[in-house]
Design a protein that fits this description.
Elements lengths: L1 E4 L5 H12 L3 E6 L2 H13 L4 E5 L5 H15 L4 E4 L14 H29 L2 E7 L10 H21 L5 E7 L9 E3 L5 E3 L9 H14 L3 E3 L2 H12 L1 H10 L10
Parallel strand pairs: 1-2, 1-4, 2-3, 4-5, 5-6, 6-9
Antiparallel strand pairs: 7-8
Helix pairs in contact: 1-6, 3-4, 4-5
Amino acid sequence: MRVLITGSSRGIGRETARRFAAAGAYVVINGRDPVRLEETRRSMEEQGYRVGAVCGDIADPHGAQAVVDQAASLMGGLDVLVNNAGIAMRGRFDETDAGVWQRVIGTNVLGTAYVTRSALDHLTQTRGTVVFVSSLVAKWGFPLVSVYSASKMALTGLAESLRSETRSSGIRIVTVYVGISQNDSDKQIIAADGTPMEMADRPRAMSQERVAAAIYRAARRRRAEKVLTFGGWALSTLVRVAPGSIRFILSLSAKRIDQLAK
């Protein structure tokens, strides 16, 4: 199995790369920071994994095409694309700078679309799989993460459209909805004014290794959708049967929502 994982020099992407590689896959990791990317590649290689690395910014359409082409060239093809790269934010909608919208949508939506489009020819040849790593905020718009939530909801629409368009080619589209998960200790997200801010501690968060294992299983089973954790399942159920209750709960707890996005 030949796998390209975007945004995989750190965090969930890095652990997902390790999980695929541990199962025998040839994995190409990707990121924008060449130093961090090489550190991750070398660490995986020292563990005996088959791994390559392609540095590039997927938010640029030419950069996305180059990432896919170089990865496919390294591996001799492509069987699985895991769209993991993403940018998170925090802040009230009415205080969010336009530049934050551009950065989040540029990477989370456009970058994902660019990479996926670039990979379709390769995946058609192998009847491969596209995985979208999404978030529970794609199921319902949470306060204080409006831009992030909108970007993840857009991925749901993209996945559904692709699912219909690519069915005859044998490509399978999988969306994994991740809940509260651990982050690297040095991870930063974007504040409403565009400045970096530290992530809050998440003592009850799902470990990166467990999330990675779930992404791997979802890719292997090629089912359309996987919602992680009981809380995620409960939210998905309430969205269908009792949306009013979600609105009420979130209106009372908006100040605590900054801990709930991926």
